[in-house]
Design goal:
By secondary structure, the protein is an alpha/beta fold. The chain folds into two domains: 222 residues, Spore Coat Polysaccharide Biosynthesis Protein SpsA, Chain A (Alpha-Beta Complex); 61 residues, UDP N-Acetylglucosamine Acyltransferase, domain 1, CATH 2.160.10. The protein is built from seven helices and 21 strands. The strands form six sheets. It has a seven-stranded mixed β-sheet. Strands 12-15-18-21 form a four-stranded parallel β-sheet, covered by helices on one side. β4, α2 and β5 form a beta-alpha-beta unit. α5 crosses α6. It is elongated and about 70 Å long. The relative contact order is 0.13.
Amino acid sequence: MPETVALILAAGKGTRMRTDRPKMLHEVCGVPMLEWVVQTAREAGATRVVVVVGHQKEVIKKHFRSLGVEWVDQDQQLGTGHAVMVAREALRGITGDVLVLYGDKPLIKAKTLADLLASHRAQRAAATVLTAHLADPFGYGRILKARDGRIRAIVEEVDASPSQKRIRETNSGIYAFELKALFAALEQVKPDNKKGEHYLTDVIGVLYKRGKKVIGSDMSDFAQTLGVNSQQELAQVSRLARADILKQLMDAGVTVIDPESTFVERGVKVGAGTVLYPFCYLDKGTEIGVDCRIGPFVHLRSGSRVPNGAQLRAKAIA
């Protein structure tokens, strides 16, 4: 099996978050965004994880020092293509494939990445793009295809022509690349776009012109690739992540009276037959036994242990 490296781009300033806190430290269901992506990459089969950091890099490295990743500094943020290029030395000697991911896209699932890699390898592609068909593709890069169905280019919204903007197949920003082909193509990428940046998407056009195979791996659940660039988007992504956590608990036999008013962080364990009432909040690291009754209005902090059959309710005020 070829070696798989996950390259996670996490160097952005996160200006739209309107806070001094590094964006990668913002939590989704109790877990920092970057940690979500690192864990998922490993579950998908990545044997090495390399993270490109820039803004407040020392704060980020210190916070995640136990995460077991390799760090690469991008001192100047000159685009996604540049972010990948600065990782070249760290990836020297790798002969397999690289998954390019983003630290602010925590909802991506391991199965989606594993399927992307499987398609990439089965087709012996130089690059495979995770794509989706959207009813409203505004803001996303559009997929341009050749007559044989292969991808010939990706054009960003800001650079797209009126006819290209009508294309509904979009780029998620997540890729699998054959490593040697990726860096050879990056050498040809020039910042000749409206932003003056080195776009990673331009690699696709370079590979196509060189006769390399570039394919798409279509996905139905585009919400997995939602990014976080503002507090509103953080709330949206957190809501989706929480719904998924609750679904897994319900599938395992936990009763959730009202999922929209029940808050469970990632990594909480709840036994079958337990009932979670509205407005309870369970911090990560909480463990609850079977046949319990939790809430309403109960907050269990990290490390809480609830024995089988326990009933916890907030104190009523007469």
